[in-house]
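Changelog-adjacent note: as of this version, every example in the card shows the full chain rather than a window. The one below runs 144 residues end to end.
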Amino acid sequence: MNHILPPNRDRTVLLSRSDARMLAEIALAAVQQGHGEQALPILDALDHETPDHPIAAVGRALMALHAGRADDAVRILEREALGKRHGRVPVQGLLLMALAAGGRYAEAARQLDIILAGPDGASRRLAMTIGTAIRQRAGQPVRP
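Full-length structure tokens:
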């Protein structure tokens, strides 16, 4: 149930971009502190207000990861976040972490290659940091 938006609300935008960002930060902080249930209404509102952005799916994926449900996090990211027009690169990094957390090292190694070939420096640094361990666990040769 959505406690932020009125029921049966049309597609009129109620939040400014800065308001949506602030709500996303609040929701993600709640998720990271183990209060995901309190974040759900905010994530639902963000889903409604920012349908082209993956932030709500990222929040739900983080909730799943914190609960030890890496496979659920992977499903959420693949179904709800990767296809969004905005914010795709950070989603790829989180997907890499979720695959590795779930012990899906061969898939994580493929995701690692996608990130390393991409333009995002922060995701590449993350990938390079954990890439050696992922490749070793996937039974692949370690690359420089």
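Structural remarks: Residues 17-137 form a domain with the Serine Threonine Protein Phosphatase 5, Tetratricopeptide repeat fold (CATH 1.25.40.10).
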